[in-house]
Amino acid sequence: MVKGTAAQLDHDEKKLINYRSSLDRNPWWAQTIIYIILLLLSLITLLPLVNVLSISLSEADAIYRNPMMLIPHQFTIEAFEYIFSTRILLTSFGVSVFATVIGTLLNLIFTITGGYALSKTQIPGYKYWMWLIIFPMLFGAGLIPMYILLKNLHLIDSIWVLVVTGLVAPFYLILMRNFFWSIPEELEECARMEGASDFRILLHVVIPLSKPAIATVGLFYAVGHWNDLFTGLFFINDNTKWPLQVLLRSIIIDMNALNTRSVGALTNDAGRVIVAGENIKAATIIFSIVPILMVYPFLQKYFVKGILLGSVKG
After folding, report:
1. Membrane-spanning regions, if any (predicted)?
2. Among 3.40.640.10, 1.10.3720.10, 2.60.40.2340, 1.10.275.10, what is the CATH number of 81-310?
3. How far, in Å, CA of 90 to CA of 101, rounded?
4. What are the contacts of 255-259 at 24+ separation with CB within 8 A?
5. What are the tens digits of pLDDT across the range 98-113?
6. What is d(CA 229, CA 236) in angstroms, rounded to the nearest whole number?
7. Which helix (DSSP H) or strand (DSSP E) does residue 92 occupy?
8. Domain segments of the chain: what residues?
9. Can you name the residues that pair with 58 across neighbouring β-strands?
10. Residue 311: helix, strand or coil by DSSP?
């Protein structure tokens, strides 16, 4: 009786496995439809970027005739030559690079050290520190208290305000802490038995094993700094210290920052206008997008792995 029951259970288990495997195997036409839909969605998301790129590489009269172009008409690079010859744009680019590089470096230093400390639940006042970190995620002080604080710190109209504000994001700090929890404690114990200090363990054991999480959090911080508009808009009045995004806003909305009304003087030998305000706006948008896009391919292999491993424990 027992053998018959066991055989029946084994048979039912095999039938269940075969049924699940048949569900996992989609027919070829279903896979084809899925790939076509994903391809169409990808193309739709790329169309605005392709349109802006085509406008930046086209002459002014071609843009006026056909503003929704996908390939450049009457190809020219005069718009890019113009923006590269404009000192204020290059200055803003340098400010954004400074804020992104230095800001991301400081973000990672404080986030890694803070996350490693919080991964040790035995530290005094652990719950107090966690509540102190989680509370700002739920409630913000507001713009006016932030302005008063930065003014008392003499950071208004300073490029350091782009770095100091948001020095540690609570969500990324918790994400890093969760990733450190996934590292076996035996590795740290072995290093401590060899006489390594906590700082040396962090530097030589924990950080090398945490490259996926560090790369992911670093990418988030870098994109945040590069796309930061409101910090420069609210706390920097000197246009020579504007980051690139604030200058881009001024170009698109005000059309005064680069004196684009004088762009009509850029004509060819026949006296035809080849660069106008639309060219300048499109070229500046492309100029602001390309640098951060170049970072993604180098960190892509760490991106998904870092997110998954950092969310194992909560």
Report:
1. 28-50, 88-116, 128-148, 160-180, 201-223, 280-299
2. 1.10.3720.10
3. 16
4. 257/88, 258/83, 258/86, 258/88, 258/89, 258/284
5. 999 999 999 999 999 8
6. 11
7. helix 87-118
8. 2-56, 81-310
9. 75
10. coil
